[in-house]
Amino acid sequence: VLDDVCETMGVTLTRFMNEVAMLNPELKELTTIFGAIDTACKAISNEVKRSQLPSSETLGYQGAVNAQGEDQKKLDVITNDLLKRALRFTGRLGVLASEEEDTPVDVIGRSTGKSGSLEIVLDETTDYVVCFDPLDGSSNVDAGIPTGTIIGIFEHDETCEIDFDNIGEDEAAEQEARCLANTLQPGTNLVAAAYCLYSSSTFLTLTLGNGVYMFTLDETIGEFILAKPNVRIPESSSIYSFNEANLDYWDEPMREVVERWREGTGRSGVRFSSRYIGSMVGDVHRTLMYGGVFGYPGDTKNPNGKLRLLYEGAPMAFIMEQAGGLATTGTQRVMEITPEVVHQRVPVIMGSKNDVIEVIECYKTAAAPF
Ligand code: P6P
């Protein structure tokens, strides 16, 4: 059904989502959420661009540390609050997880006066759970390197209301864990994913499970315009995108494949180039556009790599697969992994199908050499 929509290239994101809702009434609430994402990403784009002005209040560090133990830059906090506020007012969201939050936070909540607890009030109006990294790669902003917002949207099929005032701690903890479990879903449960890249242009790329659609922000009218419907990643490539400084610590199969690509002795017989900007959204966007393999594999220092499953690996894997690419840990499809904790890390190798298959086969050979 989405195909009918993509014929009208040049439409605004708003018009695109209205047409999707007309053709797919069951997606109406989901398209409402994209209205909030549209607004938030325009505002974040403006914050990022203005953050380098001398008059800007958003330069430098917030002075706090986030759940990852990373110094929170002011922009991290501003963009996190901005996205939460925009999503909250859709009235359709339940528990959401953010890189900047210690534990998942409710969006439709009531103040129970309990400090530090997981305030979850999900009712029948709650349709979705959203997980996001509000400004991935934010440490690059001061250097003018692209950054991005990454969003994953799950259906929330269970309502739960926890009356903290009238149950004991244990019961509350058990109910919280059950509700939290609704956030911890595998990527195969994603109903939509999106990223917004703040770079030479501002690109909003999304999938609703039926192809990948790329919008570019036209700042003269303040609207995202459909620029590339049905994006398809080239099946083979000659670009790899890894932090090669970690090469000595990688699994043997990963090291072997990259060395073959570098020498031109891999499956394609082509010598690869290396392109890496250290900002996932920029590296993934280039990979989608030109083909290639982007990755942050596990290594001896970090067996699960550095990237987070819920709000980096899984949403980007969904987009990559919807564009005809693949996303693996080396031994497992990224989208099939169910997180056990909110900020779980996952090794990620994603991109052009034939090149990622070469990585998977290398891991298989290493696991069963005879
Ligand atoms: P490294 C940014 O900090 C980030 O989370 C991703 O955007 C990026 O792909 C990765 O880390 C870069 O990590 O260790 O290569 O600097």
TrEMBL record:
PROSITE patterns cross-referenced by the UniProt entry: FBPASE
GO terms (BP aspect): fructose 1,6-bisphosphate metabolic process; fructose 6-phosphate metabolic process; fructose metabolic process; gluconeogenesis; sucrose biosynthetic process
Catalytic activity from the UniProt record: beta-D-fructose 1,6-bisphosphate + H2O = beta-D-fructose 6-phosphate + phosphate
Cofactor(s) named in the record: Mg(2+)
GO molecular function ontology, one term from the record: metal ion binding
EC number of this enzyme: 3.1.3.11
Top-level taxon of the source organism: Eukaryota
Keywords: Carbohydrate metabolism, Hydrolase, Magnesium, Metal-binding, Signal
A GO cellular component annotation in the UniProt record: cytosol
Subunit structure: Homotetramer.
The family this protein is said to belong to: Belongs to the FBPase class 1 family.
HAMAP family found in the cross-reference section: FBPase_class1
Protein's recorded name: fructose-bisphosphatase
Organism: Seminavis robusta
Lineage: Eukaryota, Sar, Stramenopiles, Ochrophyta, Bacillariophyta
